[in-house]
Amino acid sequence: MATKIGLIGDVHSYPEPLGEALSLLKKIGVEMILCAGDIAGYGNDLDGTAELLISNECKTVIGNHDNWHLQGINQDDRTPAESWIAQLPAALEFTIEGKSLYMVHSRPPTHDRHGIKLLDEKGGVVSEQKEIWTQALAGFEYDILIVGHSHQVYAEQLGDVLLINPGSTCFNNACGILSLPEMKVEFLSLPDKSIVKSWNWGA
């Protein structure tokens, strides 16, 4: 029987779509949930968003909006949510069902900006971008790379690496499920919404 891993990203201080995604994943019965960073930014409920991630035991990496949010805040003045974000790692790695996974917000090894864009503004795969990133990831020593940042929804095999971006819960209306060891990826739309495969393209 496959092990199912829930995938979310770029939740950006909007707890409602995050909660909808978490409910979907829990109903399906995922074994664990991975979040590709950017808890902060855009929305106005960082505390509620962080609490959902914590209470659902999401394995989370730090993103660029998180680092920006923490700048200039004295450690003693941080809220509990900010203190939790401050201790998040830049990258996480796992071995599940014999498959090696690496998760980082933008691109490996630990970058939080200038992420991996594979899609055009309509959500189609740009062959030149796919070729560029296939070459860039040649020799990457993991079976699966999970990223966020670009607000694009894709799962593409680039050479030996399965590259996955679950998109943003609040902007792409999406979350994902990775089934192992089959390495099958399914994207789910949030209730009463459609997946936006590429959001804020080119900005």
TrEMBL record:
<dbReference type="InterPro" id="IPR029052">
    <property type="entry name" value="Metallo-depent_PP-like"/>
</dbReference>
<keyword id="KW-0479">Metal-binding</keyword>
<dbReference type="InterPro" id="IPR000979">
    <property type="entry name" value="Phosphodiesterase_MJ0936/Vps29"/>
</dbReference>
<comment type="similarity">
    <text>Belongs to the metallophosphoesterase superfamily. YfcE family.</text>
</comment>
<dbReference type="InterPro" id="IPR024654">
    <property type="entry name" value="Calcineurin-like_PHP_lpxH"/>
</dbReference>
<dbReference type="GO" id="GO:0046872">
    <property type="term" value="F:metal ion binding"/>
</dbReference>
<dbReference type="InterPro" id="IPR053193">
    <property type="entry name" value="MetalloPDE_YfcE-like"/>
</dbReference>
<dbReference type="Pfam" id="PF12850">
    <property type="entry name" value="Metallophos_2"/>
</dbReference>
<feature type="domain" description="Calcineurin-like phosphoesterase">
    <location>
        <begin position="4"/>
        <end position="171"/>
    </location>
</feature>
<protein>
    <recommendedName>
        <fullName>Phosphoesterase</fullName>
        <ecNumber>3.1.4.-</ecNumber>
    </recommendedName>
</protein>
<dbReference type="GO" id="GO:0016787">
    <property type="term" value="F:hydrolase activity"/>
</dbReference>
